[in-house]
Amino acid sequence: xxxxxxxxxxxxxxxxxxxxxxxxxxxxxxxxxxxxxxxxxxxxxxxxxxxxxxxxxxxxxxxxxxxxxxxxxxxxxxxxxxxxxxxxxxxxxxxxxxxxxxxxxxxxxxxxxxxxxxxxxxxxxxxxxxxxxxxxxxxxxxxxxxxxxxxxxxxxxxxxxxxxxxxxxxxxxxxxxxxxxxxxxxxxxxxxxxxxxxxxxxxxxxxxxxxxxxxxxxxxxxxxxxxxxxxxxxxxxxxxxxxxxxxxxxx
Length: 251
What we know:
Elements: E1 2-4, H1 11-25, E2 35-37, H2 43-50, E3 56-59, H3 76-81, E4 86-89, H4 92-98, H5 102-115, E5 118-123, H6 127-131, H7 135-146, H8 152-155, E6 159-162, H9 176-194, H10 196-201, E7 203-206, H11 215-219, E8 226-229, H12 236-250
Parallel strand pairs: 1-2, 1-8, 2-3, 3-4, 4-5, 5-6, 6-7, 7-8
């Protein structure tokens, strides 16, 4: 369960949120990987607040180069130095607002893996693409291009997040059946590309408005292995309820 704070919470506010969150998820972290992904400026404060806990730290993006003239970018190794283990790549907002491409996501994924980070690679269709019945082509195309050139061994360190763009921040959520249908397509393509063992080992997260009242039902679907949580991750009680629902389903 990864919480994407997006462009929210300055360092002090982020640390305060984590102080509330940690005791609420203490019983979940034995069964569920719980991760928070603050904005860059709050990563150091979050790392300090997470000291001694089982909650992991992730960033919201990284570049594919180790260093250089890339103003405004952050290298994978820089994230490691402040305690990150995870990084979100290819989020729909990065694609929509900042022109990120599948090729760029692929380069970032390979760089993150080479540095020792665990990428959460995001894929998903827009409402227009869903209405045009292009879900399979869009989602599997993004998956193929984003993971191109990876080995089965590398795939073991990757999570895939399916985020129907029409369900992010809108309050709309894919039904469990709709979500499972696409997750099943993703698992099937991973099977074709990387083999049964690798595909079975990949965690496929759902990233479209998972909330306390729908988390358990979504998590009961056979191919939904976790969540990439946006707005609900900014409220300690809500994010903890989602993590604890995942724990109960896993148990």
